[in-house]
Amino acid sequence: MSAGRKLSLGRYDFAAYLTFFAYAAGSVVVPVCLIELARELNFDLASGGMTAGGGLHFGRTVTMVVAMLLVGFVAGRWGTRRTLGTSVLLMSVGILLCALSPGYGLLFLAMLFAGLGEGVIEGLATPFVQNLHPREPGRYVNISHAFWSVGILVTVVVAGWMLAAGYSWRVLTAVVSGVGAFAALLILWPTPAGMHSAESAERADVREIWQRIRKIARSRRFWVFYGAMFLAGGGEFCLTFWSASHIQLHFGETAWGGGIGVAIFALAMVIGRLGAGYFVPQAKLRKMILIAAVFGTGVTVFLPWVTELYQFYLLLFLSGLATAPFWPSIQSHAAERLPELDETMLLILLSCAGVPGCGVFTYLMGFWGDLAGSLATAFYLVPLAYFFIFVLIGFLGKTGREVRN
């Protein structure tokens, strides 16, 4: 594919990049530091503290979902830019409170607080970029989402180095908070005259928001995209969440070896999303999604079979390339195919499919692993997810009209 129209980037684009970076870093910084953090705060994972550790992520997910359900109403009243900037600041404060927490209880509350901001970011960051670039938005959305993977990659590598060098987990967490605060400043700083405001077209009251939601929910085509987003989130998070544990349990590697696997996957995601953003025009998004689904199914089906660590690393890299375009491209393609629906609310509701997909598939993979006595066969969930993405997007594109019962 040839490169599309020359990219046009401004202050809000870089603010979006930092937002995705900080959001990803804030999502993984506590898990990456969890062993050291748990020892210091007296819920040692090796001494029965795993439930408490898992509770941190569960609490954060709950407040994220609550925030995502409410974000449409808040953004309709305050506007996309101001709501997003405030949420990034809220997330940063929550992460800073994590760094300052003297015990588990306050750490848990801080994670809940950060989750509120992260839920709004998840719902609004993509519409924010879409509003910036109404022509070929898919390219810019893919590039901005690449910085989620950059955030994971950098955090995993830097955290491993800092912890090995003897730095406190509190220092690393505070640095992540600072990055988020700077991103919030870039978004909230007043817009100069003549500069694109990055706002949605108009404000709306609660009644209008409900009308938009009902209109979206009545669209059969929306539910096809909703299912594809659920599967995309599930497949991506299975690989992100469980790869490190599988490497340690199946290949007998250290936590550092597991972290390398996650970093390889994240690096491939960066390459895939930047490549999609630069080379793939809006009109080719559906074709790219279908190719990625076929390629991803063919690659990930071999994950349970490999017996050498270098083979698993290679498959993780190829899986990352395939996985990269799903989340941003499905959202952008949906907005293009459903122009009669409110774009901001549509993208928010699609994110409300992706995030639960992450949680459900992560749980199912762990449950499958317990039943089988190994995580290896549980990786079959990933190719299943990608195969059904192909079915959903392929069927939708073939009909070219509203899908009927």
Automatic annotation (TrEMBL):
<feature type="transmembrane region" description="Helical">
    <location>
        <begin position="222"/>
        <end position="244"/>
    </location>
</feature>
<comment type="similarity">
    <text>Belongs to the major facilitator superfamily.</text>
</comment>
<protein>
    <submittedName>
        <fullName>MFS transporter</fullName>
    </submittedName>
</protein>
<dbReference type="InterPro" id="IPR036259">
    <property type="entry name" value="MFS_trans_sf"/>
</dbReference>
<dbReference type="GO" id="GO:0016020">
    <property type="term" value="C:membrane"/>
</dbReference>
<feature type="domain" description="Major facilitator superfamily (MFS) profile">
    <location>
        <begin position="12"/>
        <end position="401"/>
    </location>
</feature>
<dbReference type="InterPro" id="IPR051788">
    <property type="entry name" value="MFS_Transporter"/>
</dbReference>
<keyword id="KW-0812">Transmembrane</keyword>
<feature type="transmembrane region" description="Helical">
    <location>
        <begin position="346"/>
        <end position="366"/>
    </location>
</feature>
<feature type="transmembrane region" description="Helical">
    <location>
        <begin position="256"/>
        <end position="276"/>
    </location>
</feature>
<feature type="transmembrane region" description="Helical">
    <location>
        <begin position="83"/>
        <end position="102"/>
    </location>
</feature>
<keyword id="KW-0813">Transport</keyword>
<feature type="transmembrane region" description="Helical">
    <location>
        <begin position="288"/>
        <end position="306"/>
    </location>
</feature>
<feature type="transmembrane region" description="Helical">
    <location>
        <begin position="312"/>
        <end position="330"/>
    </location>
</feature>
<feature type="transmembrane region" description="Helical">
    <location>
        <begin position="108"/>
        <end position="129"/>
    </location>
</feature>
<feature type="transmembrane region" description="Helical">
    <location>
        <begin position="12"/>
        <end position="38"/>
    </location>
</feature>
<dbReference type="GO" id="GO:0022857">
    <property type="term" value="F:transmembrane transporter activity"/>
</dbReference>
<dbReference type="GO" id="GO:0012505">
    <property type="term" value="C:endomembrane system"/>
</dbReference>
<feature type="transmembrane region" description="Helical">
    <location>
        <begin position="141"/>
        <end position="163"/>
    </location>
</feature>
<feature type="transmembrane region" description="Helical">
    <location>
        <begin position="58"/>
        <end position="76"/>
    </location>
</feature>
<dbReference type="InterPro" id="IPR011701">
    <property type="entry name" value="MFS"/>
</dbReference>
<keyword id="KW-1133">Transmembrane helix</keyword>
<dbReference type="InterPro" id="IPR020846">
    <property type="entry name" value="MFS_dom"/>
</dbReference>
<feature type="transmembrane region" description="Helical">
    <location>
        <begin position="169"/>
        <end position="189"/>
    </location>
</feature>
<dbReference type="Pfam" id="PF07690">
    <property type="entry name" value="MFS_1"/>
</dbReference>
<feature type="transmembrane region" description="Helical">
    <location>
        <begin position="378"/>
        <end position="397"/>
    </location>
</feature>
<keyword id="KW-0472">Membrane</keyword>
